[in-house]
Amino acid sequence: MHRYSLIGLLGGFFAVAVASQGGRVVTEAEFLSVLDETHPAVRESAGAVGLAEARLLAARTFDNPVLEAVRADPAGPIGQTDVLVSWQIPNAARRPEIEAREGEIGAARRRLTHDLLGYRLAMREAYAGWAVAAARRQRLSTQAERVESLARREASRAERGEASGLEARRLRLAAATLRSRVALAAGATEGAKAEAAAWHPGLPVDARPVLPELPDVPSLDGADTRVRAAQADLGAAELAELATRPIAASPEVTLGWQEQDIGLGSVDGPIFGVAWSVPLFDRRQAARQTAGAALEAARARLELAERESTAARTAAGINFARLAAALAEARRELGATERMLDGAEAAFRQGEAGLTDLLETHRSVTEAELAVLDLHEAALAAHRELERLAASGEGGPGS
Question: Domain containing 276 — which CATH number?
């Protein structure tokens, strides 16, 4: 597979900047590592599998026998004692019912896999938002420090009569504007970190993210997790429909012992009985109709999932390739930004360029670098969409 390598000036700059700020660096892989079977989101989704397993256990369990003891002692000379045991024989629908419940477990596990992928992508989104916000804040902070340094230098020159006081005030105003943007970016970073911490409760207070590179393009061969879940649901619905076909219930068998007191003596002997529900009116019509409707709905869901997956894969592949290529090109264009700023400042000090030109150069560089961050964020989102559509439904949490 082709790997989009996006290691460039900005990537190296932000990695160094994060390390220089202190605090514990938390990579995306470390952030995602907490998504395992102990994570609350995983435990909540796993409950559906537990319920399906409980229904299978119920289907496999035989009915309890019923023990009954009856003493009849009328006013006449005869008394009677009956001790009875009744048991419902497993009917013909038991085996199909068990198979249907086994199919439900398979479908529940497929849905759990689909949910796990959704949680992973939500965590990737939260981390990317946090990392991009931190990178934006760092870029603005660096630019504000540079402009403030220029403002202090020009203020000193103005006090010595070597520069215009107006130019020094304009630089201070530009620095104040950047400080305002830094404050807004800091608030956005803290908000994004709070969203990330909701997924990672043990996130260190001083944790700092690293802007992720674009991962490899995932394989789009085979069915994605949503389609696989729909396929499993259809299989379970087919088994459930088969389980409604037997209409005759099994008989209830009664065995017991009867003793009759007659005058000075008694007689006793065994009792045998059979009770059988005759399917004359209730022939499970409602159950079969319900199962049939559920089966048709499952078929329709699978068809829709397959259509949407096919269309979405085409669009997502094109979108990611376009964004990745645009990001690589934009980073190449920004490879000389530091030299550009140094040159603009040197030209200003030597009187070869005015303050307006210098401020415009700073503004252009900052906006261009922030635009690249926006493009990087969009490319990461496009890759998450590709991962959602990829045929990677066999992994476990955090895989």
Answer: 1.20.1600.10
